[in-house]
Amino acid sequence: MPYKQFVVSIIAAAVSVTALAATETYPNRPVRLVISYSAGGPVDIVGRLAGLKLAEALGQPVIADNRAGANGNIATEIVAASTPDGYTLLIGSNGSIAINPGLYHSLIADPVRYLAPVILLASSPLILVTHPSVAPNTVKNLIQLAKSTPGKINFASAGSGSSAHLAAELFKGMAAVDLVHIPYKGAAPALADLVAGQVQIMFTGVSATLPFIKGGKLKALGVTGEKRIGVLSDVPTIGESVPGYEVTTWYGLFAAAKTPATIVRRLHGILADALAGTDMKSRLAALGAEPSGLPPEKFAPMIKLEIAKWAKVVKDAGIRPD
Q1: Cα–Cα dist 160/128, whole Å
Q2: Which one of 2, 62, 102, 182 is separated from 214 by 20 to 30 angstroms, measured CA to CA?
């Protein structure tokens, strides 16, 4: 049996099984929290913060399990194929949940079909930064330079199909500029080459670039969210120069599809309360992120809108995964 057919059959069997654990005794054993990216990144940090809060409230260990690979698809497949009983949960992001459906045409585990959204934990903008040798100090002037020198400005990304890559492609389309993509095997080497002046611009996470901005090694031109952020309050949004432009990275908790609604509601309630507290707010602020708490009934339609948005960007730019 081909691998894809085999995995799909496992998922189909798993989601058809009635949850074995009685919801009134949930949980009576440790909970596995599958994190879709490697340790140390923002998805991992947000996931582990959520895991700590869940463990405190549930009275059971919540074991973080980093399963990086295939832009988050491996972790998604693991949770999609699990028994829908609340003992295997997923920390996913817009990259793995919203971008992948448009990027991978042979996606094994469709997140809309095989996952149950629990809560939108937090969201954060990216930031457009340049090497100091790049003359423009504003997004408007960068666009003017790009229009006068098409194909001469390059931008780094963490890889083809990454959130940062698609943020740049959306910018290219909306600003009608020709920029050259230089993909890397991760955000860290891309940022290192940007600081060294090997590439000129990059859309990337706020927390990773903040020390370089404050140290004068990079220039911040604009943030991709709908509003300015506190840690860089003097940096305008890109939407102020390119009306309608908005990109946020987000982090959410998911269970397997058909997980009992009582379990989903309990998990949401625990984390919504935690996100309203000063501890989580301050920890997320250090990442340049804001807490959300969006419930499943609002999170699910948001995901569908995000999937449609990024599928169009992928198609228009002709992007294929590495």
Answers
A1: 17
A2: 182
In this structure, whether the domain defined by 3-124+249-317 belongs to CATH 1.10.760.10 is answered with no
Which tokens hold the place of 154? Answer: 């390059």
Q: Helix, strand, or coil here: 297?
A: helix
- Mean pLDDT value across the chain: 91
Per-residue pLDDT at 18: 47
CATH topology agreement for domains 3-124+249-317 and 126-240: yes
Q: Where are the domains positioned within the chain?
A: 3-124+249-317, 126-240
Q: pLDDT tens digit string along 215-270?
A: 999 999 999 999 998 888 899 999 999 999 999 999 999 999 999 999 999 999 99
What does the block give as tokens for 60?
Answer: 């059971």
The rounded distance, in Å, linking the Cα atoms of 263 and 181 is 44
Which CATH number is correct for 126-240, 3.40.50.880, 3.40.190.10, 3.40.50.261, 3.40.50.1980? 3.40.190.10
Q: What is the pLDDT of residues 20-47, one digit of tens each?
A: 445 778 999 999 999 998 888 889 999 9
The β-bridge partners of 253 are 91, 119
- Using a 10 angstrom Cβ sphere, with 0-12 exposed, 13-18 middle and 19 or more buried, the burial of residue 231 is middle
pLDDT of residue 8: 58
pTM, two decimals, is 0.86
What's the confidence (pLDDT) of residue 7?
A: 57
Q: Which two tokens stand for residue 93?
A: 């992001």
